[in-house]
Design a protein that fits this description.
single chain, alpha/beta, Rossmann fold, GMP Synthetase, Chain A, domain 3, 20 strands, about 20% strand
Length: about 500
């Protein structure tokens, strides 16, 4: 057992500027139209407004939507009869059921309409058309999301199936998270196709790409694109995985989706949003202007406000969208903000950056969509504490991707705050080793030193804490065998943090 520490700066989300005219008007109009229908046709919502003593006269136009009381799981979804959450209070409408993961409590079962699947297909179609993949050559989509009651696998399968029906040369296979089947597919079926799209949870796709090389399966002979969802990741991660997969243009050939069981595919990265985040990540002042003085890496995506609309309220995102179970001004539990394209371009200009020129230089101008942007940080409860400081996983993720460490560790870990025999608090980092690898004392010491160094550089509060506590501020590193079931089961999302209090 070795020692090491984590601790990003305390998060302080700044109030985001509203999107400019056209984009914000579209958001307002969508929410207002949805409000009018729901207040008439959804029994639970009518009861919700009555319970909150809502005065209908406060909302007479789209400009008045901020008067509508926000909803959430506790004050709305769990507070009324299940059937009353549907249009007309009826379950007899055709819909598809999926479940939340239940990571923050009991799972909730969401129903979505066919319209949500059509909207998701449009997002996936845009990705395919904007990518560098040939639009006429046979393409195999390998869906590596879980295929159970969760939304990721099923909605991805349905989206690409709809693309096939529209005439795109796309075939779909759904091994889910069964690695044995995935590697069989890559070895026996994939060579029959000119192109591959791998779709899955980012750490799992990293597993597949890393382990394929170890098994003698070369992916670099294919034209490949990667589709992710369910978790934010850094540009360092994007570059790492793109290089391993032989992807030459990460702007066009990778996409991270911001989706939920609640409303399906709500927003997605575009070549433009990736470019914006990359440029901002290299400019500290611009990054702070866009995203606030925060250490976490946000997902920056674009959305169609006629599908799902986003608002920002005191640093928290509210979503509104029509489905079998419509939601309006719904607090999903994520932090973030909303920008119009024009505001993003203006902020860049203020920092001496011509966004239009950057797009031309990156050769993504044809992919321009002047849709509004949403940026999102992972759930506010995905952190632990050390001596009162908030500790997030981002810094450790980056350290483990370094070339000196990546051949030995998978990049997965779990943070836990614990107490020793003297009741002193310390941070434990449980790290997964690659298959058939071990962590020597030298390796452990090197990794510990690098984590501490990175934490001190990127987290001012941790740096101050380390001055007073010395080695006691350093976390304990514990290395686990590959896919050990205690922290590293592959049938569930990776738990980067386990809170014990």
């Amino acid at each position: 057992m070795t020692r090491t520490t984590v601790s990003p700066k305390r998060r302080s989300l700044t109030k985001t500027a509203k999107p400019s005219s056209n984009a914000f008007q579209a958001v307002q109009a969508h929410i207002y139209k949805l409000y009018q229908r729901m207040s008439r046709e959804v029994p639970a919502y009518k009861a919700f407004l009555k319970k909150n003593r809502f005065v209908k006269d406060l909302v007479n136009s789209a400009a008045d939507i901020t008067h509508i009381p926000p909803t959430n799981k506790n004050n709305y979804l769990r507070d009324y009869k299940y059937k009353d959450l549907f249009w007309g209070g009826a379950l007899a409408t055709p819909h598809i059921m999926t479940s939340t993961s239940g990571s923050t409590g009991e799972p909730f079962y969401f129903a979505r309409s066919h319209a949500i699947d059509e909207q998701s297909a449009l997002v996936h179609e845009r990705f395919f058309l904007q990518s560098s993949l040939s639009k006429t050559k046979p393409t195999l989509v390998i869906v590596c999301f879980g295929m159970g009651v969760w939304i990721g696998g099923l909605i991805t399968y349905q989206a690409f199936q709809l693309l096939g029906k529209r005439g795109h040369p796309i075939s779909v296979i759904t091994p889910g998270i069964n690695k044995t089947e995935i590697f069989k597919i890559l070895r026996l079926l994939a060579p029959q196709y000119d192109q591959i799209i791998l779709a899955g949870y980012p750490p799992f796709i990293k597993d597949v790409i890393d382990e394929a090389a170890e098994k003698g399966i070369s992916l670099k002979g294919y034209r490949m694109a990667l589709l992710f969802a369910a978790e934010a990741f850094s540009e360092h991660f994007r570059d790492y995985i793109s290089k391993k997969a032989g992807i030459k243009n990460a702007l066009t050939d990778t996409m991270n989706i911001y989706g939920t069981a609640d409303l399906g595919t709500m927003a997605a990265e575009t070549p433009l949003s990736i470019l914006v985040r990359r440029i901002a990540g290299a400019d500290t002042e611009l990054f702070a202007k866009l995203f606030g003085s925060i250490n976490k890496t946000p997902t920056l995506a674009q959305f169609n406000p006629t599908f799902t609309s986003f608002e920002e309220s005191n640093g928290e995102l509210l979503i509104s969208g029509d489905s079998a179970m419509p939601l309006i001004r719904y607090a999903i539990g994520d932090n973030g903000g909303v920008y119009a394209f024009e505001r993003i371009a203006s902020l860049f200009k203020e920092h001496g950056i011509d966004l239009a020129k950057e797009m031309r230089d990156a050769k993504i101008e044809p992919s321009l969509a002047k849709l509004p942007f949403v940026y999102v940080y992972e759930r506010s409860d995905l952190s632990t504490t050390l001596y009162g400081l908030q500790i997030y996983p981002e810094t450790i993720k980056e350290t483990l991707l370094q070339e000196v460490f990546a051949p030995f560790v998978t990049g997965r870990f779990t943070l836990v705050t614990k107490y020793d025999d003297q009741h002193d608090q310390y941070l434990e980092i449980n790290i997964e080793l690659r298959s058939e690898k071990e962590a020597s004392k030298t390796f452990s010491s090197q990794l510990l030193a690098e984590i501490v160094k990175d934490l001190k550089q990127k987290n001012g509060e941790f740096s101050e804490l380390a001055k007073f506590l010395g080695e006691r501020a350093e976390p304990h590193l514990i290395f686990w065998p590959h896919e050990d079931p205690l922290y590293f089961r592959r049938d569930i999302k990776q738990k980067w943090v386990i809170r014990t209090q």
